[in-house]
Amino acid sequence: MKKSYQKHIHKHMSKKVNIVVVTLSSPILVGIYDNSTDKLITSYESTQKSSEYIPTLFEKLLNEYNIETLVYAKGPGSFMAIKVTYVFLKTLSISLKIPLLAQDGFYFNNNTPIKAIGKLFFEKNKEQIVTKTFNQIPQSKFYLPKLFLKNEYLKDSEPLYILPAV
């Protein structure tokens, strides 16, 4: 990662972008947004584990782009994926002085239920997140927004760890 860090510091002429990362379920989604137009210009999707995919992808991204802002889906969802993503992005944020913002997962799936465990799902009612059992599994698909609307992301990037009672 040292080479990437050095290149990132010295790349003043590379394209400025914002990056959105959604790792709450499979597939992992990563969106690259042009900083001048706020439009999604490239996206990546993977069924690998966050701990394997995110570092490899970011090594490439740090060599290609000048990253202005990092955003991630802070939960609820896969506890380990949230944890790995947060620690990785927070480390980048601190070491490269890139702001880290967040939003809950419901922002990235049109407010549909998010899988917890078994038939238990997370559901958002107004501002409260609760768990609910569904006999028929609801369809929930995450997506990357077409536009990067910075004012819709939160400065509070602490993970949203909600563990359902087992």
Task: Provide tags for this entry.
alpha/beta, Nucleotidyltransferase, domain 5
Spatial sequence of strands, sheet with the most strands: 3-2-1-4-5
Poorly predicted segments? 6-12
Q: What sequence of helices (H) and strands (E) makes up the elements?
A: HEEEHEHEEEE
Strand content: 25-35%
Q: Could you estimate the helical fraction of the residues in percent?
A: 25-40%
The biggest sheet, with number of strands, parallel, antiparallel or mixed sense and barrel status, is: 5 strands, mixed
How would you state the average pLDDT, rounded? 90
The counted number of beta strands is 8
Write up this protein.
This protein has a domain of 115 residues: ATPase, nucleotide binding domain (Nucleotidyltransferase, domain 5, 2-Layer Sandwich). A hairpin with a 5-residue loop joins β1 and β2. The longest helix has 18 residues. It has 3 helices and 8 strands. Helices cover 25% and strands 30% of the residues. With 166 residues, it is of the alpha/beta class. The strands form 2 sheets. A 5-stranded mixed β-sheet has the order 3-2-1-4-5, covered by helices on one side. Strands 6-7-8 form a 3-stranded antiparallel β-sheet, with no helix packed on it.
